[in-house]
Structures are given as structure tokens and as C-alpha cells.
Write the C-alpha cells for this entry.
Amino acid sequence: MAFAGNVDELALLQSVRLKGSVSAPVLAVQLGVTESSAQAALDALVAAGRASDSGDAGVSLTDAGVTELEDQLDAERVSIDEDLFAEVVERFEPLDEEFAELTEGDVDSLVDLDRRASDVFDDVSAYVPRLARYQELLADSLDRVKSGDSFSDTYAVVWSELRREILSASAQ
């Protein structure tokens, strides 16, 4: 459902929860929207009592925001074919184990893993369309790692968030 700033409310709430505290510039990148749209969405969350100022130029979810998020995630799960999505999760798990073994500076292995994981992430996006944005975030993070940015500060953060999303969608 579109929220203030034409931002999907479920994606907004989940992004705030995953980040813990989020500012408009960070949220804009995460959701692929303009910074002004992200700010409008955050302002609307605060006005609705679903988020509050976290004191670090960002906002975090209130108890009401967490409750709303859980309700929306439950509704989303109802629309997912559990058996078929479980097969996708089974294909993801060995990749996730391999990911956990990667070390900083092992760019070639990361590139190979990213390539092999792309089909799984395509399937994840087919079942949970709001997660399609993660493929762009992973691609951008991979480019940053190739350019010398820290693996643990870029790609690992996005992978970890997507992992949490996949497990949440599968009710794990």
C-alpha cells in the first residue's frame, strides 16, 4: 500500500526495523526513492505514532510501529505459497552458509557467489515482490566492493538484511 511520499508502507516499516534507526538519505537509498519522498514517509510515520525520533537524526519504530509491521508481514505471508517458497529457502541456505565463510578481500569468491545467488533472488522476488529492490542494492554493493570499499560495510549488510527478510517471509 502506498504511504506518504509514495512509499510502500510495509517496505518502509521493515526498512526502519532492519536499520534500527534510519534517516531520510539512508531510507531513500534503501527504497530507491527520492530523499524528499523518504522524508515525507518518515514524517508520516512519526505523525501516525509508528515511529519516533531516535536522537541521531533518524527515526526508529515505536511499539505501535512494530505491531503494524508484524500485522502487515503476517498478511504478506498469507499470500506466499509456503511449500514453493520453502524450496527457494532450501536453495538459499547453502549459499548463505557459503556467504558466512567469505572473508574481507575475497572479491572473486564474492562475485562468484553473487552470480550463483541471483537465480535464487529472482525467485525470492517472484514470491515477495517488495524484496526485488535488494537485487539492485546487492549489485550496487558488489560494485562498491570491487572498487575497494569494505565488504563488511557494504555487501554484507545488504545480504544480512535480505537473509532476515527471506527467513521472515518463510516464518522462520
